[in-house]
Every structure is written in C-alpha cells, then in structure tokens.
UniProtKB/TrEMBL annotation, chain A:
PANTHER family per record: SPERMIDINE/PUTRESCINE IMPORT ATP-BINDING PROTEIN POTA, SPERMIDINE_PUTRESCINE IMPORT ATP-BINDING PROTEIN POTA
Domain of life (superkingdom): Bacteria
InterPro entries tied to this protein: AAA+_ATPase, ABC_SmlMolc_Importer, ABC_transporter-like_ATP-bd, ABC_transporter-like_CS, Mo/tungstate-bd_C_term_dom, P-loop_NTPase, Transp-assoc_OB_typ2
Family the entry assigns: Belongs to the ABC transporter superfamily.
Name listed for the protein in its UniProt record: ABC transporter ATP-binding protein
Record GO cellular component, one term: ATP-binding cassette (ABC) transporter complex
TrEMBL record, chain B:
Protein name: Iron ABC transporter permease
Entry's Gene Ontology BP terms: transmembrane transport
Transmembrane segments: 7-27, 59-77, 86-110, 130-149, 158-179, 227-249, 261-283, 303-330, 351-373, 379-398, 410-431, 458-480, 501-521, 527-547, 559-579, 591-611, 647-670, 690-715
Membrane topology: Multi-pass membrane protein
Species of origin: Phyllobacterium pellucidum
Annotated GO CC locations: plasma membrane
Protein keywords: Membrane, Transmembrane, Transmembrane helix, Transport
Pfam family, any one: BPD_transp_1
Residue ranges annotated for the ABC transmembrane type-1 domain, each copy included: 223-428, 521-711
Subcellular location(s) of the protein: Cell membrane
Coiled-coil blocks: none
Entry-linked InterPro entries: MetI-like, MetI-like_sf
Keyword Membrane: yes
Top-level taxon of origin: Bacteria
Length: 352, 742
C-alpha cells in the first residue's frame, strides 16, 4: 500500500519559547521505512521535536526535510505527515467512519470515495463494521485503533505517534504496541514514536533517540543503548542501573580489565583508558551469594517482595546497590550479611 | 495553483472591484438604493476611485492606485522573502495612507492648517468614504496579512493572520476611533478648531464636582451623586444577591427553581421598564400611593422621582445579575474546607464567618464592582425616574439633545463617566485577578455544603422572600399595566393600548400595519436579527483567536476588547455621534451605525462565553484536524463550531436580546427612518402615555421569550452519545457551564 514512505532530516534545528530554549541545535536523520523512537523524561524536548515535524510548531532556526523536501515553513495542513495524538483527539461529534474519512475529504477527495477508503482503513486495523458508532461508544483500545486508522488512510510519508499508549491500561498496552509494530512492518511506513517509557521504546523500535534537556543524549539500536550506554543518564534511563566507580587497569582492544571494590573483571573494552572510571551494573547482574574469591561483603538494608522477584537495597563498600533477585525463596531479612558478586555480562563501562 | 496565490487573487479581486467597479465616495441617497448606477462611472459623485484619481484630479487616490499596482506586481513573483516584504509594505503603507488622507482632507479641503502650509491649499475637498474605499481598505488589510503569513508568522496560517489583522482594524475603527474622537471633541469648538475653553470651563464646573451635600446641606455635584448612587446600588444588589445565592444553594427553600428563573429577567427586560413599573406603583397616581393617601389621608408625594427612586429601580434590576454571579461563588467554596473546619471543632456559625464568607470575599468584591459599573452605565431608569435630579449618563444625553446643545460638555461628562467605570473595570481585572479562592480544578470535590446557621438562615429568608415577592409584583405591574385605561384615575380594563400600538387591518388583500408601534418594532427586529449572528460570529472568532492562538500582543488584544465592554452605552452613543457625523466616515442616521454599535458593544460577551466553552475543548482536536490536511477555517467549521453549539446559542440569544433591550447608546443613534423600540417607548413615557408604553414593553418581553426558545430549537444540541446525556441548559449569563464532556 505504501511506496511513499519518506525520510526525515533535521538540520541544526533550534526552538525557543520566549527566553526558554526547548531544543538546542538538533540534527537527526531517519531512514525510510524504520520506526524510530524519541525517548526521554518529560520536558526533554521530544514532544516539541515531534510537533515541529508535524508543523504544529515552527523552529526558531534550522531546517526540516521530509522525503527530501524542505518543509520548514510549511503549515501543518500542507505537510505529508499525519499524527496519532496522546488523547487520540477523535472528533466526538462525528462517527468513527466520518473521523477516518475526515482527512481524505480535507484533501479534496470525493465523499463517496473517501468513505470507501475509510472503510478499508478500518478493516486494516480490525474495526470493520464499527463505522457508524460514535467514538464515545468504543473502548479505549478501539479508540486508539481508530486514531491510527485515521492517520494511516492518508498514506503519509511519515506517521507520528505521540505517546499513543499512555491512555491504555498496562495489560492492553503490551498488546497494542505489538499491533502497531506489526502494522508498521507489514505496511512499511516510516514512523516516529514519542514515549517516556523505556520498555515500550525497546519493544517497538528500530532505532531509539534518547533526548535530555533539548539535546540528543544518545541514539542507536535498542541493543546498543542497553549494552553500551554512553552516559550514566542513559544507563539509568534504559533499564535501571547501578552506577559504580571503578578503576580501569588495562585494555587489550577487545576487553578491558577493571577493578571494582576489591574484585577484578573482564568487560567489553569500549575504548576505555586506564584510570578511574564508572561502570553501569544492571540490578539483575548482581548475585548475593557469590563464591568467596569473587565477592565482597554487603549488608541488606531493605527488602521488598514483588511476587516473581525480590528487590533489595544492599549496603556495600561500592555504595548502596539496587539488586533484583529472582530467588524468591531466599527472601533475606534486613541486616543479613551477603557476599556480592557481578555477572560480567551485565556490566558496561561508561566512557564519560 | 498554490494556496498562497489563490488567496492573493481573491484579495486582488476585492481591491480591483473597490477601485474600479463601485463609487469610491459615499452615495448621499444610499448605496443599496442603486440610484448611483445611472451616473456611474462618469459622475463626479459616483465615479470609482481610479477615475476620481485620473479624471477628477485627486492625486491622493492616485497614490493608493500606485500602491495597489505594487501589490499586483508582487503577485507575479514567486513566493519569496521579497514578495512577502512587498505585500507587507504595500498593505501597511496603503492602510496608513488611506487613513491619513481620510482624516486630513475634509469636505472643504485640508482639515489641519499644517498640511496647507506644507502642501499648499487644495482646490477641492472630498466627501466621506464609500463602498469603493471600504473594499480597497479590506484588500490592503488582506495584503498585509497574507504577506505576514508567507513570512511564516503564526505558523504560516493565513486565515488566522488575516482574522487577527481584520479584527484589530475593525476594533480600531469602531471602538478606539470614536472614543478618541470624543476626547478630541472635548477640546474643539463648533467649527472643529482647537479650543480648550469648553473643556476647562466644564471640568471645573461646580455643578459637577461640588460636595455641598456633605458640608453645606445643598445638593452635591452630578459626578459625586452618580458615584454615591453607584456605591449604594452596588452594596444593595450585592447583599441581596448574596442572600438569594445562599437561599438557593444552602437551604431547603422549596422554590429554588423559581428563584433561578429570576436571573433571566434582567436580560429580557428593557432597562427602563422597572422604573416604569415603579411609577405605576408609587408615582403620584400609583396604586400604592393612591391607597395610602386614601386610607391615611396623606398627600401623594413625589419622593419616587429622584435618587431614591432610581436606587430602588436599580437594585431591583441588578440584584438578579449579582445573584447569578454569586451562585457560582457560593457553590465554588469547596465543601471539604467547610468539612475540615467542622472536624476542627468549629460550629456552623463559626464555620460560616471564619471559613465560608472569607472564601467568598473576592467573589463579593467582583459582584460589587459589576453592580457599580451597571449602575453607572444605567440610562433607562434615571431617564424615566430622574426628573431634574439627573445622573451622569442622562446629563450627557441632555447636554446634546436639550436646549444646551453643548458637545464639549457632553464630552467632558462622558470622560468623567468613563474614568469611573474604567477604574472599576481595572480594579476588577488587575486587583481581583488571581484572588479567587473558588475551586476551579474541574475535579469533583466530594462532600456536601453545610447548611447555614439557623439564625442566619432565618435572616436571609426574611430578606429574600419579601424582595422576591416585590419583584414579582413589579413584573406583574408591567403585564397588567397594559390592560388598564389610565392608572390611578380610571382603573377599568381595556385593550385600547394594545390596539393603539399593534392594530392592523386587511386592505386590498394585504395587511396594513396601522398600529403606532409597528414601525419601530419591525426596525428593531430587523436590526437585531442582522446584528445577532454578526455579533456571535465576531465574538466566537475572537474567542478562538484568544484561546487557541499565541500571537504577539494577545493579552493586550484581549484586554482592549474586554475593556470596551466597560464603556457605558451613553459614552459609546455620544462618541459614535461625534465620530461618524463628518468625513472620513459618515454613518449617522443609517441602520449601519446601529448594527456596528450592537456588534462591537455586545461582542465581549460572545468572547467571554466562547473563551469559557473553548477552554474545555481539548486543543489536540484542532491539531488533529490540522494534521489531517484541514485548513484552520475548515477546522473551525467542522470541528470547533459543532462542539460549541451551547456557546453559540448563548451568544446569539444574548446579542439578539441586547439589541432589542438596550437604550443608552441607541437613543443617540436612532433616526426618523430607523427608530428602535426602546427609544420609541421612552418617547411615549416622556409624553405620559404610560399605558401604551407598558403594553409595548410587555409585548417585547413576550416576543423575546418566543425568539429565545426558537433560537434554541434551531441550533439544537450537541450529539456526542447515542443517548444524549449532555445537558445543554441555557445559562442566561451567556457563560455556558458545560460539565459533561465525553
């Protein structure tokens, strides 16, 4: 259906609201047919970036290209993108079919043809036969699919999704994100997806762009971000991490030898230079009953039983560590002494 | 064709039509009569702008044609910075020059001597601007706006930029230009030359400023009397309004629905009707006066005619308004505050005095200021009841129409009145802003309001019930009064007054409207029906711009609009007369001036209602529509308007009704050809024809109720669910209080 899928290029885009700078000098490049996530905490500028792409905000300086065409000054209604809103923004006074046909009719398509295309769009998202209902008569998940259908029938070069799952309950969220990803891969359109939920981002994306305070903190595939975070911010934001100081002892080009507390570990090198550094240790990469020679002591400060795992805060000489332990039967009480060890697969050196 | 070229073509078409197809100057016999077609385009009075410039040697118009040519040239450039700058420059310079030449060249030549010394004397003056000038001005404004839009202003949205520019232009012409003219008028003598003596004489006049009533025992000056009256009226109506609000929300009073109906009354009542009814009750020939003098043998007095009478009439008129404001305030006090107070060992009495009342204070101050402004601006009641003890608003009127005929005095009095009302308005906006304690989170606050302390409850009932009965009697008088032959003298029932006002006959198969009221009645209906949709459209468009668009100077724009609402009708009336009597714009005596007056006077209410309603619509609805390829215009038409139906009804009804009931500005602007119902009724009252006046008034009230119902059926309800649970109750303050949202 979609051969018109387009690339997105931002060149030195800057956006100010009054004296507040929301975006500092942003440049990015999105390849056609990929799903790219803008991820970051609230206020990081990810939504502003999306809205500039949609034409709902105009950049203070810089250029935006969609499918190779400069759209920097083009108003929203003349851009070849469409958007799924966080609140869905379904028009409450129009039927589902009228909602989906709205964009086609706005583009000048004949009413009968627009209706027919809208029916096809609804079938595409599994809502055939719901056309005559009002949005208020659908469930949250169905409304969400109407919003997607409404955006997709326009066959935009780029589909924008602004936190599309945040109004769904946790159980539904998992299903709908799979649906969106399948639809994107089946139809092959370019999608830009904004979320603050790192798990969601890891699950759906080809690439993730993590933003912080109006700049890109790191971009890459989900795996790159998780396994090789560029900063402690990324390490902590993409999956949780304990950031622990260490000493790099040597680097043979593929592996580095580091010392944490009194233990030595071999980890992927990542161009670490000898001297003091930091590592990110994933909470599930810490064991509490390590063998004597590869362990250092700790003391349980707090424990929380969460059904399929137990979360501990452990006092150690490397600082307080957050530990996720799947062995629920162990259920250690506070003040219990433990011997801490690391699985070296869950350790990444942080370069800066 | 690109959108940017298409819209520019339209603007060019309008401008060319203005320059070539219609007469540039005002047609004395009326443009719509089309009598000008006979001598078009060669007659010197009828010629279009282009011929006026080159055939009749008006170089000032040639310059406008030249500026226009620049815009045409720009049209054939590709969209670029040069093109947009050319458009902005042509539009801006054109408008400025058009305004300048309009003001500078009057009927007989230069208006100001400085031009004569600079450019030499003019051979010929020019008449007022007409259709051609108007269309050209519109085109120039559009060039300017489209130029800005091409530069990417407001995200390149041409519709929004053009709307804002046009609105600013119109508000400048119809609000600021007249008020400015009035200020200038205060410093002018009859022939228009600068002469501060009238201003100096009037501003120092002891009959305005004297404080003798406080020290000397004589009467105070008119400014102070008006001020004291306004303070007393505001106090009275605020206290009564609070009592009504407490009874309606905090007691188990059985007729609460009936009480709330009271709030509609001031909207559908022409402002002098209360005064009229009071005369029928307490005047020298009034029912009560006659009974009392009959029983006690007291000589009937004239106490009603003066400040006392005006005060009673105003408190009766404005209590419902303050009631309406205070219902919201009393309900806005969070019940959990009161519940917290009770759990902290306070009894109901202490809770009311220490918690509830202090929380209502900002609301009370607001109601007081509204009462103050309303009293200051009131014209109908003082005119009917004032006699020789006038207030500022009536005194302004008599300064122009009476034997005094002193426009400078009228202007000075109007300025004083304006200063009073604007001070109250500023106090309301600046001092009270952000002081409200009412819960506005929109989240349901659980818990119930506590009942009033017993003694207080008895107290408010004791005030509310007699006053409500009094109001009922007063309105009863209006309905009954039309059927009584001569009040006090001959109390037999009759249809005589209705016949005189509204008789009609069938002659030669057609209806002949023989009653005396028909002429003004049809004029009123016509003008109200034309101005209501215009008012609603302009008001809601403005609300859309204020709520949905962020543009430079938005808060100033909003503030100026709201301020125009605080300008008393009398001041608007006098300033329109002063502004539109001479070139460049001459509109006195036409229907147009009445329509313009209504649109720009009543628009702020449409704005307020629209802002309230639109703030409840999720902004992402508009954005969704935009990203779905719709223009702003289509977004408004397809998405916003259908969702704003309750606000539209309110704005339509309100502007329609205000056009029928208002008197203060209208009385300056009516003419023999376009007489309005209210000014006709006031004429009847001045002639002592109370019967016909009352009959006509009650007829108006009935007609308004019928039409309000009609409007509501016509616009219909929002359909957001199959079983429509959305309440679309008509809220009379024109502030739709939609609670149900999907």
């Amino acid at each position: 259906m979609n051969n018109r899928t387009g690339s997105v290029v931002f060149t030195n885009v800057k956006k100010q609201f009054g004296s507040f700078t929301a975006i500092h000098d942003l440049s990015l490049d999105i390849e056609p047919g990929t799903l790219v996530t803008l991820l970051g905490p609230s206020g990081c500028g990810k939504t502003t970036t999306l809205r500039m792409l949609a034409g709902l905000e105009h950049p203070t300086s810089g250029r935006i290209l969609i499918g190779g065409k400069d759209v920097t000054m083009l108003p929203a209604n003349e851009r070849d993108v469409s958007m799924v809103f966080q609140s869905y923004a379904l028009f409450p006074h129009m039927s589902v079919l009228e909602n989906v046909a709205y964009g086609l009719e706005s583009s000048g398509m004949k009413k009968s043809e627009a209706r027919q295309r809208a029916e096809e769009g609804l079938t595409q998202v599994g809502l055939a036969g719901y056309g005559q209902r009002l949005p208020a008569e659908l469930s949250g998940g169905q409304q969400q699919r109407v919003a997607v259908a409404r955006a997709l029938v326009l066959e935009p070069q780029v589909l924008l999704l602004d936190e599309p799952l945040s109004n769904l309950d946790a159980r539904l969220r998992r299903r709908v994100r799979t649906e969106i990803r399948e639809l994107q891969q089946r139809l092959g359109f370019t999608a830009v997806y904004v979320t603050h939920d790192q798990e969601e981002a890891l699950a759906v994306s080809d690439r993730i762009i993590v933003m912080q305070d109006g700049v890109i903190a790191q971009q890459g595939s989900p795996r790159e971000l998780y396994e090789a975070p560029a900063s402690s911010f990324i390490a902590d934001f993409i999956g949780e991490a304990n950031v622990v100081p260490c000493e790099v002892l040597g680097n043979d080009g593929t592996e580095a030898i580091i010392r944490v507390a009194r233990l030595e570990h071999r980890v992927p090198a990542r161009s670490a230079r000898p001297g003091p550094a930091r590592i990110a240790v994933r909470p599930n990469a810490i064991t509490l009953e390590a063998a004597e020679e590869a362990a250092f002591p700790g003391s349980i400060r707090h424990a929380a039983y969460l059904g399929d795992h137990v979360e501990y805060e452990v006092e150690t000489e490397a600082g307080t560590l957050f530990v996720v332990d799947p062995a629920i039967d162990r259920n250690l009480a506070p003040a219990t002494n433990v011997s801490i060890g690391f699985h070296h697969r869950g350790i990444a050196i942080i370069n800066n | 064709m690109e959108r940017s070229d298409r819209r520019l073509n339209i603007a060019l078409g309008i401008g060319l039509a203005g320059l070539v197809l219609v007469p540039w100057y005002r047609i004395e016999a009326g443009f719509y009569g089309l009598s000008w077609l006979k001598n078009f385009p060669t007659g010197s009075a009828e010629a279009p702008g282009i011929l006026q410039a080159f055939e009749f040697g008006r170089w000032n118009l040639a310059l406008i044609a030249l500026i226009f040519a620049v815009a045409i040239a720009a049209r054939f450039l590709r969209v670029s910075a040069l093109r947009s700058n050319l458009l902005i420059a042509a539009g801006g310079a054109g408008i400025l020059f058009l305004v300048w030449q309009g003001l500078a060249i009057g009927y007989t030549g230069w208006s100001w001597t400085i031009n004569e010394t600079l450019f030499g004397p003019l051979a010929d003056g020019q008449p007022s601007m007409g259709a051609g000038a108007g269309l050209t001005a519109l085109a120039l404004v559009l060039f300017f706006a489209f130029g800005l839009a091409e530069r990417g202003v407001l995200r390149g949205d041409a519709f929004v930029v053009a709307s804002i520019t046009l609105l600013v232009f119109l508000v400048a012409i119809f609000v600021f230009y007249p008020v400015g003219s009035m200020f200038v008028g205060a410093f002018q003598s009859f022939d228009g030359s600068f002469d501060p003596s009238g201003f100096v004489r009037n501003i120092q006049d002891p009959s305005i400023w004297s404080l003798d009533c406080l020290v000397g025992g004589n009467r105070c000056g008119i400014a102070w009397r008006t001020f004291f009256l306004a303070v007393l009226t505001a106090s009275g109506s605020t206290i009564l309004g609070l009592c009504f609000a407490l009874v309606a929300t905090r007691t188990r009073f059985p007729f609460k629905k009936g009480l709330r109906l009271l709030t509609i009354l001031p909207i559908i009542t022409p402002p002098f009707v209360i005064g009229l009814a009071l005369i029928l009750l307490f005047g020298r020939a009034g029912v009560v006066t006659q009974q009392i003098s009959h029983i006690f043998g007291v000589e009937p007095g004239r106490w009603l005619y003066g400040l006392t009478g005006i005060w009673i009439a105003q408190v009766l008129s404005f209590t419902p308004i303050s009631f309406l404001v205070l219902i919201g305030v009393v309900e806005g006090v969070s019940p959990s505050m009161e519940e917290a107070s009770q759990t902290l060992r306070a009894d109901r009495w202490r809770t009311f005095w220490r918690i509830s009342l202090p929380l209502m204070k900002p609301g009370l101050a607001n109601a007081f200021l509204i009462g103050f402004i309303e009293s200051m601006a009131d014209f109908g009641n003082p005119l009917v009841l004032g006699g020789s003890h006038g207030v500022l608003s009536t005194e302004i009127f008599f300064a122009v129409v009476g034997s005094q005929n002193d426009p400078s005095r009228a202007a000075v009095l109007a300025i004083i009145l304006l200063v009073f009302t604007l001070s109250a308005f500023l106090a309301q906006r600046l001092w009270l802003a952000g002081k409200s304690f009412a819960t506005v989170t929109g989240k349901a606050d659980s818990g119930a309001h506590i009942a009033l302390p017993r003694s207080l409850s008895i107290g408010v009932h004791a005030i509310v019930i007699p006053w409500a009965l009094f109001t009922l009697v007063v309105y009863g008088m209006i309905l009954v009064g039309g059927f009584v032959r001569t009040w006090g003298l001959d109390n037999t029932l009759t249809f005589e007054h209705y016949q005189r006002a509204f008789s009609f006959a069938f002659e030669n198969g057609a209806i002949a409207w023989t009653g005396v009221a028909w002429n003004s009645f049809w004029t009123t209906m016509e003008i109200a029906l034309i101005s209501a949709p215009l008012t609603a459209a302009v008001g809601l468009l403005t609300a859309y711009l204020i709520v949905r668009q962020r543009f430079f100077g938005r808060s100033v724009f909003e503030f100026a609009l709201m301020m125009s609402f605080a300008i008393p009708g009398t001041v608007i009336g006098i300033s329109y007369v002063m502004a539109y009597n001479l070139p460049p714009l001459e509109m006195t005596g036409t229907a147009l001036i009445l329509i313009a007056c209504f649109v720009f006077r009543n628009m702020p209410v449409g704005v307020r209602g629209g802002v309230a309603a639109m703030s409840q619509l999720d902004k992402s609805l508009d954005e969704a529509s935009l990203t779905l390829r719709a223009t702003s215009f289509r977004t408004i038409r397809k998405v916003i308007l259908p969702l704003l139906r309750p606000a539209i009804v309110a704005a339509l009804v309100y502007s329609f009704v205000r056009a029928i009931t208002s008197i203060s500005a209208v009385i300056f602007l009516v003419s023999a050809q376009y007489n309005m119902a209210t000014s006709y009724i006031v004429g009847l009252v001045e002639n002592g024809e109370y019967g016909v006046a009352v009959a006509y008034s009650s007829m108006l009230i009935v007609v308004m109720i019928v039409i309000i119902t009609g409007f509501q059926l016509l616009v219909g309800e929002r359909r957001l669910r199959r079983e429509n649970r959305v309440a679309t109750a008509f809220v009379p303050a024109a502030v739709p209080q939609e609670k149900a949202t999907p």
